[in-house]
Amino acid sequence: MTTTTAGDAGAAPPADTGPTPSPSPSLPPKRTGRSATGTRRWLAAAFLLPGLVLLGALVLYPIGYSVYRSFLDQPGTGFAGLDNYRALFTDATILTAVKNNAIWVVLAPTIATALGLMFAVLTERIRWGTAFKLIVFMPMAISMLAAGIIFRLVYDQAPERGVANAVAVGVHDTFSESSGFPKAHPLPVHPLKAGGGGSFVTKEPVRAGAPALLPLVGVLPAKMPGDARPAAAAPAASGDGIAGTAWLDFTRGGGGRPNTVDPKELGLKGLKVEAVKDGRVVAATTAGADGSFTLPASADGALLRLPAENFREPYNGVDWLGPSLVTPGIIGSYVWMWAGFAMVLIAAGLAGLPRELLEAARVDGANEWQVFRRITVPLLAPVLAVVLVTLMINVLKVFDLVFIIAPGSSQDDANVLALQLYRSSFGTDADLGVGSAIAVLLLLLVIPVMLFNIRRIRKEGRR
Fold first, then answer.
1. Tens digit of pLDDT for each residue in 416-458?
2. Which of 310, 336, 366 is a domain's end point?
3. Would you give the distance in Å from CA 99 to the centre of its chain?
4. Which residue segment(s) compose the domain that 355 sits in?
5. Is the entire prediction scored with pTM above 0.70?
6. Number of domains forming the structure of the chain
7. Do residue 296 and residue 197 come from a single domain?
8. pLDDT digits (tens, 9 = 90+) for 348-372
9. I need a surface site. Which of 30, 163, 231, 234 has the fewest CB within 10 A?
10. Domain with 146 in it: what CATH number?
11. What is the 3-state secondary structure (H, E, C) of 384-396?
């Protein structure tokens, strides 16, 4: 084999093979009818078609028809233009619903999120925190209907049925003694008359040596003090004092005589008696279990007065479902249900926080409040935003609680847009045009919140 080297002068030059061919341009990929995941496009479309049909029938069509119907009149036969939307801002009932919805959007999500944050942080380090979280989250297991029935009973005006008023009455009566005889009053034949301000006074001044009789009626025997005893004749007063008897001048079964202490009549235990001269109280006492009482000699010639505090109506609690408190009361029931939801989400976010940052802050001298305010809350901001946005969307369409808890007399004061939508769309005087306009308004209120949520999710996804 002969090898040609560079030094060979007589070596033949390499053969000319022509210009070097340029690389051929890349050809477009051949279409195979498959998606990026390798699935045939027609097969994917076939699987998506039922869902798209349901989405169009149950979501898109109702939205489109509601927008169309909102421009028609009440019968739906004529074009009403913007009259239905104008009614949203001129009708007093609908304006109340808009105002209440604004109160709901501001208060309910904020309070529920704040409570959820507090529960999640405070129960993080205790051994029974899981049990506490289970109890707080438990209301989420019941429906809005059941929660509404529960709180309709909780807010009942009667203290013997409503838990809230039972607590309120108990606290009030602890610090302020209640009246024993709210319905008691004298008869015209009795030696008492109205004294002004709810009090009663004797028609004539009392004298030493003569018994002072203070009969009253209007108290059911079942409402008498449990330790009241049969009324006794007035005891003899010492010196020039005044002795008397205050009793219920009513004999069960009949047969009693007015202004006379009969054997079956009970004394008005605890009745306060004052001796008044020239508009000034000179002596005071309280009737015993048998109704008897005595006054010192200074009461001679005075008028006996039964002050109004003997007869004032007992404290019956707070009117939770009245016009002024019905909306805060219903918001309280909503917070009772959804604080557990906020707590669970925030607790999940709290479990994912980098502990080294918290410990570093403590090592640098920060107290727990500073760690919470400057480290924990800023790191939990995305989770808090999720909870707030979710609850805001939820309260915009709240209906069940308001419809069930608010009584008929206060339903206008507790009205919200979802309830007004129901009231405007159904019933004898239904106006589907106005109802559809309210539905469109609710949609317009929800869309900005949803767009904010979508934007936040995309921003989190790009991190």
1. 999 999 988 887 678 899 999 999 999 998 888 888 888 887 8
2. 310
3. 16
4. 91-164+320-425
5. yes
6. 2
7. yes
8. 999 888 888 888 988 888 888 898 8
9. 30
10. 1.10.3720.10
11. HHHHHHHHHHHHH
